[in-house]
Amino acid sequence: MRLDPDSALNHLPQPLVIVTAGDFEKPGRRGGMTAAWVSRVSMSPPLIMVSIAPSRYTLELVRENREFAVNIVGGKLEKAAYGVFGSKTGRGLDKIAESRVKARRGEKTRVPILEDAALTLECRLVKTVEAGDHVLAIGEVVNALKFSDEQPIVFTP
Ligand SMILES: Cc1cc2nc3c(=O)[nH]c(=O)nc-3n(C[C@H](O)[C@H](O)[C@H](O)COP(=O)(O)O)c2cc1C
Questions:
Q1: Cα 86 to ligand 1 centroid, rounded to whole Å
Q2: Ligand 1 close to Cβ of residue 22 (< 6 A)
Q3: What is the DSSP string of the chain?
Q4: Model pTM score
Q5: How confident is the model at residue 156, as a pLDDT?
Q6: Which residue from 18, 30, 100, 126 lies 20 to 30 Å from 4 (Cα-Cα)?
Q7: Parts of the chain with a pLDDT under 70
Q8: pLDDT of residue 69
Q9: Where are the domains of the chain?
């Protein structure tokens, strides 16, 4: 059976993360979005990429501060990932406050990190690369924090 490329790609198992960006101390200039198009891309240095549509407010914040965090979602954050972080734009909305998730400023970055995540990877932006209709934000992991033993969520769309 031959599939069209778009629906074939929906069979790739995908991680569920919330990418946060901006400055935790500035409620008007902080935010985050749910992402599934996320991958490790280099061992040394440890690089990770997130594929972000150009319209996302989160991409604006990533470009502004050149930092982001990848918060790996387990059961505790699942509702927020499919809800406010994955369905509303952060333009004019403070998703951190709205979602009532436990958050604080990163240790090596200024971005909000989500303590309700299983794990958080703080990243410095290395470069952005245009790829088709998305932009790849490639970052170096500069700090990693484990908050719980929750199993990270993996899904197939
Ligand atoms: C399960 C799920 C996965 C998503 N994956 C991505 C993704 O990989 N890249 C992307 O640009 N948007 C993705 N989105 C859509 C954004 O999370 C959504 O448009 C968000 O509201 C953008 O918020 P912002 O404008 O505040 O950045 C996903 C949404 C959901 C629910």
A1: 5
A2: no
A3: ----HHHHHTTS-EE-EEEEEE-TT-GGGEEEEEE--EEEEETTTTEEEEEE-TT-HHHHHHHHHSEEEEEE--HHHHHHHHTHHHHS--TT--HHHHHT--EEE-SSSSSEEETTSSEEEEEEEEEEEEETTEEEEEEEEEEEEE---PPPPEE--
A4: 0.98
A5: 87
A6: 18
A7: none
A8: 99
A9: 5-36+56-124+143-148
Query: Is residue 90 in contact with ligand 1, taking CB distance under 6 Å?
Result: yes
pLDDT of residue 79: 98
> What is the best residue among 17, 33, 49 to mutate for testing ligand 1's pocket, by most ligand atoms within 8 Å of CB?
33
Assess if CATH 3.30.420.310 describes domain 5-36+56-124+143-148. no
Confidence (pLDDT) at 118: 98
Supply the pLDDT for residue 157: 79
Rounded CA Rg of the chain = 15
2 Cα to the center of ligand 1, angstroms: 29
- Closest C-alpha to ligand 1, atom 15: 86
**How far, rounded to the nearest angstrom, does the alpha carbon of residue 31 sit from its chain's CA centroid?**
10
- Which residues face 69 on adjacent strands? 20, 122
